[in-house]
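Researcher: Good morning. I'm working through a list of sequences from a screen, and I'd like to move beyond sequence-only analysis. For each chain I'm collecting a predicted structure so we can compare shapes side by side. This is the next one on the list. No need for commentary yet; just the structure.
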Amino acid sequence: MAPGVTIAVVELRSALRNRWLQYYTAAFALLAGLLAFGGLAAAGYGGAAGFGPTAAGLISLDLVIVPLMALTVGALAYCRDRERGTLSYLGALPLSVDSIFRAKALGLAVGLSMAVALGFSLALVVMALMGVGGNAGDLAALVGLTWLLALAMGGIGLAISVNARRVPAALGLAIVSWLLFVLLGDLGIMATAMATHVGMQVLLWLTILNPIEAYKIAAIAALSGSVDVLGPGGRLATDIFGGALLPVMVGALCAWLAASGGAAWWMARHGDVA
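Model: Good morning. Structure tokens for this chain:
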């Protein structure tokens, strides 16, 4: 087996054994299942009518859990092995920096994808047992957008990990990043508008440049939700982009994924990763 393939297999196994990822996956799946069950039981919805409230609850859960999970797990990708001396060992092998980076990025992507899949699977099982149906396209869109959010935030975490020398520093920076993204949501946009009297274009860019906000708007737009629940940034984006709102927000998430992954790759090639 080629060295590059070997390290990729090792990283995949390591990602699946990552205790942080296992804990987050279990918490996400449990909360998603409880949210689906509790929300439907309390509201008394059934059939297709119960899908909307459940989907809205899952979006709210995704806004909190998925970015935190992806950032913290991604932040461990390099610095944990750096502390253990594993990166120095890999650097002594006939492996290129690109091969190591690809292996770690692949392991992170597969781990996050499995976490998202398991979380939604449990929620969908609960919905099916309670007789709740929904449009297959809407379900696929919600899962796909959540997966894209996880990868984008995971890329940011990976960029943090490439530069961090110690695990506590990497985790601290990941949590601070998560708080900043959360605070720059609806409340942050409203506070900025009130405090600085900035123009509409600035508010729009604050919305687009926040991956969490872009995910929320894209998810609600994909599910044909009411514009009134999108907040000031979402309503402004809807007024400007109209029918192109969903593609623009998906493009913003893809841009975050490309930018964060590209930055992590560049820093891995030009920095002292060991």
